[in-house]
Specification:
It contains 8 helices and 12 strands. It is of the alpha/beta class. It folds into 2 domains: 124 residues, Response regulator (Rossmann fold), CATH 3.40.50; 99 residues, Winged helix-like DNA-binding domain superfamily/Winged helix DNA-binding domain (Arc Repressor Mutant, subunit A). The strands form 3 sheets. A 5-stranded parallel β-sheet has the order 2-1-3-4-5, with helices on both faces. A hairpin with a 6-residue loop joins strand 6 and strand 7. Helix 3 runs parallel beside helix 4 and helix 6 crosses helix 8.
């Protein structure tokens, strides 16, 4: 497994490299966002660890960090862990909405960072079974098809163009096979948060999924809400 670490603080980057090498990662270190793009144009990384302190490099314009995260997810389909310091909850929410797989605050404990990296890798590979590959077809009556390799969801043949987190939510519900998944179950499958029986993290993403279904011109409900409990695929 190859992980690219982008952090101008060489000491922090080396620390992360040591942590990840203990998890059987091969690592490379760069210090700017342009170097990230250059590296990914030549090699396929399994994970990017991107510090919020990384400069935009030689770009003619200053690319906002959420824009960089979104571009990496869109162009390279690679999970991104963002290292943050003095940022607000709203800024963290924006990073998640842009496609960040996780946000980790500096300073962090090595054991916590290693666990978060393992969780992101599990999610990127398909949380339910590492052996699952290719197309996961839904029952004929719901028209939902999951392309696991491409990490895309199609409804009645239309690409819903889901963000990474939206994709993970739909996949978790699909694997539930119509069963109502509680907030706790979804939080654990999508974010690896245990004992969090609350729908706050999920509501915005579910709303975005519904809007994308509507924007695709599909007049049907994909996800149904069981108030106070969780969500299920509508059947």
């Amino acid at each position: 497994m190859l992980t690219l670490i982008a952090d101008p603080d060489r000491e922090y980057a080396e620390t992360i490299s040591i942590i990840l090498r203990r998890e059987d990662h091969k690592t490379s270190i760069v210090s700017s966002r342009d170097e990230v793009s250059e590296f990914l144009s030549m090699a396929l990384a399994d994970l990017v660890v991107l510090s919020s302190a990384v400069a935009a490099g030689d770009r003619e314009f200053i690319e906002p960090l959420p824009g960089t995260v979104s571009r990496l997810r869109r162009e390279h389909h690679v999970p991104v862990i963002v290292l943050v310091e003095r940022v607000s909850p709203n800024e963290i929410a924006t990073l998640f909405d842009a496609g960040a797989s996780d946000c980790v605050r500096k300073p962090f404990h090595p054991a916590e960072f290693a666990a978060r990296a393992r969780a992101v890798v599990r999610q990127a590979r398909g949380y339910w079974t590492p052996a699952n590959e290719g197309i996961l077809a839904a029952p004929a009556d719901d028209g939902l098809v999951i392309d696991e390799k491409g990490r895309r969801a199609y409804l009645r043949g239309i690409d819903l163009r889901l963000s990474d987190l939206e994709y993970q939510i739909v996949c978790a519900l699909k694997r539930g096979n119509g069963k109502v998944l509680t907030y706790q179950e979804l939080n654990e499958q999508v974010w690896d948060y245990t004992n969090l029986n609350d729908g706050t993290l999920l509501r915005g993403h579910v709303s975005a999924i519904r809007k994308k279904v509507a924007a695709a011109g599909i007049r049907r409900r994909l996800i149904r809400t069981v108030y106070g409990v969780g969500y299920a695929l509508h059947q």
